[in-house]
Amino acid sequence: MVDVTDFKDAMAKLTTAVHVVTTDGVAGRHGFTASAVCSVTDSPPTLLVCMNTKIGFYDNFRKNGVLMVNTLTAKQSNLSNIFASRLNSDERFTHGSWGVLTTGAPLLTDALIGFDCHIKEVKEVGTHGVLICEIVDIKRNDDDALTYFNRSYHRTSGDTAII
User: Fold this and answer.
1) What is the DSSP letter of 87?
2) Residue 24 forms beta bridges with which residues?
3) Of 102, 97, 90, nearest to 66 (Cα)?
4) Which of 32, 83, 115, 151 has a C-alpha 20 to 30 A away from that of 69?
5) How many angstroms separate the CA atoms of 86 and 76, rounded?
6) Which PANTHER family does the record cross-reference, listed alphabetically (predicted)?
7) Residue 61 C-alpha from the chain's centroid
8) Are 22 and 67 in contact (CB under 8 A)?
């Protein structure tokens, strides 16, 4: 078995986008910061979100059955920190400008991308739930992306190519 610290140190060397994942519905409005988000298939357009099952509102996401993956811009690292903090849900949503698309899950209006989704399946693996989410709407903005690498934030621009 691989040591947990070795695993975390290795994962820190993978560059990832930073997202604020939100929900709203019968179980209330909630959100958290996530880096474990990726595409699954394009037919139907589907992505997965990994969420710690020990988060106090994990079951609320399942009950609501919808979520929005708000991919953050390079200017929004403060929102990443806010949605990873111990602030309650109401306090978190006082930061940023919020709207909705099709499902009613909170859309950060100036996010780089908003993926509006129905949660189709949940598989629990270890400490996390893997939420399989069918995308029903998308909103895009033009800006630089916020990425996370080696335990710190970085700006990624579409203007630079490495060959």
Assistant:
1) -
2) none
3) 102
4) 151
5) 18
6) FLAVIN REDUCTASE (PTHR30466), FMN REDUCTASE (NADH) RUTF (PTHR30466:SF1)
7) 12
8) yes
Q: Are 65 and 122 in contact (CB under 8 A)?
A: no
Q: Which residue has tokens 């394009």?
A: 42
Alpha-carbon distance 23 to 62, whole Å?
9
| pTM of the predicted protein model | 0.93
Let me know the angle formed at the C-alpha of 113 by 78 and 22, rounded to the nearest 5 degrees: 65
* Helix H or strand E segment including 23: strand 19-23
Q: How far apart are CA 123 and CA 12, in angstroms?
A: 24
H-run or E-run covering 62: helix 58-64
Per-residue pLDDT of the chain (163 residues; tens, 9 = 90+): 899 999 888 888 888 999 999 999 999 999 999 999 999 999 999 999 999 999 999 999 999 999 999 999 999 999 999 999 999 999 999 999 999 999 999 999 999 999 999 999 999 999 999 999 999 999 999 999 999 988 889 888 876 655 5
Chain centroid to CA 5: 24
Handedness of CA 20, 11, 161, 43 (dihedral sign): negative
